[in-house]
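Suppose a colleague, Dr. K., hands you the sequence of a protein chain of 481 amino acids and asks what its three-dimensional shape might be. Before reaching for any lab equipment, you can write down a predicted structure in token form. Begin with the sequence itself:
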Amino acid sequence: ELYLLFFTKVTEYSAYGAANMAFVLYLHNDIGLSDIAAGSYIGAWSLGLTGLTMVVGAVCDAIGVKRTLLIGCYALLISRLFMPLLSDVYLTSIFGFLPLAVGIAITGPVLSVGIKLFTNRAGATLGFGLFYTLMNVGWAIGAWIFDAIRGAFGDGGTANLAGIEFSTYQVIILVGFFLTIPDLIAITFIRRGVEMTENGIKITPPEKADHSVPLFTRILGLAKESSAETWNIFRSVFKQRSFHIYLFMIGLLVFVRLTFYHFHYTFPTYGIRVFGEGVKIGNMFGVLNPLMIVFLVPLIAALTMKVRSYWMLLIGTFISSASVFVATIDPTHFTFLCDTWFGDVIFDRWLEIPFGRRDPFYMSLVVFFIIFTIGEAIWSPRLMQFTAEIAPPGREGTYVALSYLPYFGAKFIAAPMSGWLIATYTPDTTEHLTDHYMVWVWIGGTAIITPLGMLFFKNLYKKAEDDAAAAADAAAEPAEG
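The predicted structure, expressed as tokens, is then:
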């Protein structure tokens, strides 16, 4: 079961990673939305996706991992089949983006639940570590697919498949449909009621009582019960002053996290308009970043185990946010790299840029992405650890779930900002884009708020860590006695 989930993780994130980079381009070129409208649409969809993710747990508890994953898989198949065939925004929303949100909202968290069920305590760390690694492998494959299909059919091109004409971006989404089919097959081989315990594999046959109540009724009943209990916990937590301080601290970290939003939704359109059609935009960040993360995260984690989370977050977010401004430096400062072995690797073997189109700005972006990823490898793994560390004992799950609220709210700004940046600084009606670097000024200016805020409120962060450590020691004393 664990290997089946690993396989599903890679294939699903390959499909999602490829389509994710094509969504804004698909909405603009195939559906006919403007730059700002496309950015706002994908932002609203992303908000809905986050909301759906919060209610998946009750469904999984009611019908189990296998059945829940099957529902998600069917939803993904429906969306990835209809989206390439539709060009009307309303039909695409109903038969494409809506079931896609359901499928993705189910797949992500339920796969994590499966990892917990199919490992014991000794294997959990390795299981989740491999899970995170394979997720990044999937993102890298998805970015490669995105560039490969664009290279085959061209940006804005068409492909005739089985007598049906598809655009380049519709083909990218359609590939996801064929990647979801082996997922469906893999999930059907998962056994119901199986789990790994400390004493070995345990299989619990389905209870006979399951057949006495209709499946839909059971799901609704458990969802209602879980929602009521969850609401009572959330209501009590919101009354605590410590929670508002906690939310403020987590909220400061949102600004650097929004950079990823722009990498996924702003950069593909930006890159095509700045460098021209056919350039391997997906490879520049979508492949480079996850492959570096796979190697850097375990190395940095091993070397910094005893370093406080605050310092790791501060240093990492400063490196990542400051790196954005590399893209605003005069590209001629990076010309010297073009004629080195590094330039040969970038232009000849990786991006395959013809000699006459070797703009030094490519080097600016590559250096920017490398430095950003180094910073990410420092702060990103510590973010969830810090979130759990400063949560009160017994409320870790609630606090971690609610830590997404600032990010949820920030998308209201990031979505229209993405469309506005594209429309303002890289309009598709302009041949010479002289102010495109301003895109990175805005993104970098937003990201730098995180380390500056952490530095200004240093005592608040350190006090939260000290209080959490003291609470953990106090909770451990009776057990030791």
